[in-house]
Amino acid sequence: MKKQNSLYRMTTSEMQIMTYLWNSKEPAIASQIVSDLIPTQNCTWKPRSVFTILKSLAEKDLIHDVGYVRTGKTYSRKFAPKVSRAEYLAMQVMNELPDQELPEFLEFFQGKVG
After folding, report:
1. Which residues contact 84 (CB under 8 A, 6 or more apart)?
2. Would you say 18 and 63 are in contact if contact means Cβ atoms under 8 Å apart?
3. Nearest CA-CA partner of 79 in 88, 87, 91, 68
4. Which of 58, 60, 52 is nearest to 92 (CA)?
5. What distance lies between CA 36 and its chain's CA centroid?
6. Which residue, 11, 22, 54, 80, shows the most beta carbons closer than 10 Å to its own?
7. Rounded CA Rg of the chain
8. 33-70, pLDDT tens digit by residue?
9. In this predicted structure, what is the pLDDT of residue 79?
10. Which residues contact 51 (CB under 8 A, 6 or more apart)?
């Protein structure tokens, strides 16, 4: 039986933003994410939806804000990943596999890496 935990599941839009944050060298603000992603990716979300997606990622404890930066006359929050891509994928595996199959997975994985 699989463990069910929606905290480890991401929508396509959430994954696009997380991939952007994982690939970024520095924390990003919402407008930067939108301006970089919309033209280059097949985004199904509207630019103003970025705040909803960021809020959802924060509720899943995958990102956090790391400060503010002045943008024009206002301040914008900067976002960074709380977990690495490798940590996220490990959480996915642990969530999907039954506990009794984790040792078999680790043995297989170690054989491929080592």
Report:
1. 22
2. yes
3. 68
4. 60
5. 16
6. 54
7. 17
8. 999 998 887 787 888 899 999 999 999 999 999 999 99
9. 97
10. 30
- Show the tokens assigned to 49: 């939806």
Q: Are 96 and 2 in contact (CB under 8 A)?
A: yes
Structure letter (DSSP) for residue 103? H
Tokens of 28: 């990003």
pTM of full prediction above 0.85: no
| DSSP one-letter code for 46 | -
CB 36 within 8 A of CB 53: no
Contact of 31 with 48, CB cutoff 8 Å: no
Give the amino acid at 91.
M
- CB 83 within 8 Å of CB 14: no
Q: What is the DSSP letter of 36?
A: H
